[in-house]
Amino acid sequence: MKKFPFLLLFILSVSVKVQAQDIKELGLMLENYEYPYLVSFYHFNAQKHAYKMAYMYIQPGQNNGKTVTLLHGKNFNGAYWETTIDALVKEGFNVLVPDQLSFGKSSKPQDFQYTFQQLAKNTKGLIDSLGIKETTILGHSMGGMLATRFALMYPEITKNLVLVNPIGLEDWKLKVPYQSVNDWYKNEIGKTYEDIKNYQKESYYDRQWNKDYAKWAKLLAGWTLNKDYDRIAWNAALTYDMIFTQPVVYEFSEITVPTLLIIGTRDRTALGKNLVSKQVKSTMGLYEKLGKTTQQKIPNAQLVEIPNTGHLPHIEAFDKFIHPLLNYLKK
After folding, report:
1. What is the pTM of this model?
2. What is the superkingdom listed in this entry's lineage (predicted)?
3. What is the count of structural domains for the chain?
4. Is residue 135 a contact partner of residue 95, using CB atoms and an 8 Å limit?
5. d(CA 264, CA 208)
6. Domain range for residue 254?
7. Who's near 33: CB < 8 A, 6+ residues apart?
């Protein structure tokens, strides 16, 4: 009987090692991770430094002359749009997919003052550099907050605004105690694959899990093995602060461009849920309600609800996501 604990520890140790071996260390700029399409770089200066912004720009031979720009969420990069890109290109759309500063293959600043205005300006510079005069701006999760800010700043080039389970549909400052950048950093620096997986299972997929979901969790976990992970964690903390302190929810009524909301109604994503009581937590991230209230705030907005779907409709329920999107873009 005395040997059993040692046997259990040995089994657990082997299990942890197998999981660790399954996580590939990734370069700071994802140099050793292949994207689905050719990656180019837009070079620009901001806040006294030179940076480069990675992007994919796909132009099909049979071209309908319309462009869609896809903006990724906080825990992702442009690569997770692969099936969406394929479907749009098949229908003749040009597709632009940037990695925002500090995400994916883009530069990882040593220090940076992150604002949605700055990220929108960077994105506008990229669009201008490619000679694009008009584009649909589609944003998911944090990308939805950025897409909203972009449409408010640059309505003249925003043909349509599409928000896919955007965050920022409620002001978390009203319910969640303020966390400093150092607090966010401490939370990020200690993350493991299991932490990332468990968060995404609970918040994104309602405790479901499969290899398609694991792929993106492993991508984040691969960075934790990098010797410069502290820089990635610090940038993540800065962007958490940006999200928390720069809500767009009060400006939805100012949007002037045609808007489509695509909402997976099972989504429960909300920043800071772990910092409040169970009672308060139960009132946060209720997307079956948030989608409807947001539609009412945005003038002439259309709402497509996808039942029994969480935070990533384009990953979890692609057919139910892409068909209404294409119908809307073809009008």
Report:
1. 0.93
2. Bacteria
3. 1
4. no
5. 15
6. 37-171+249-329
7. 26, 27, 79, 105, 219, 222
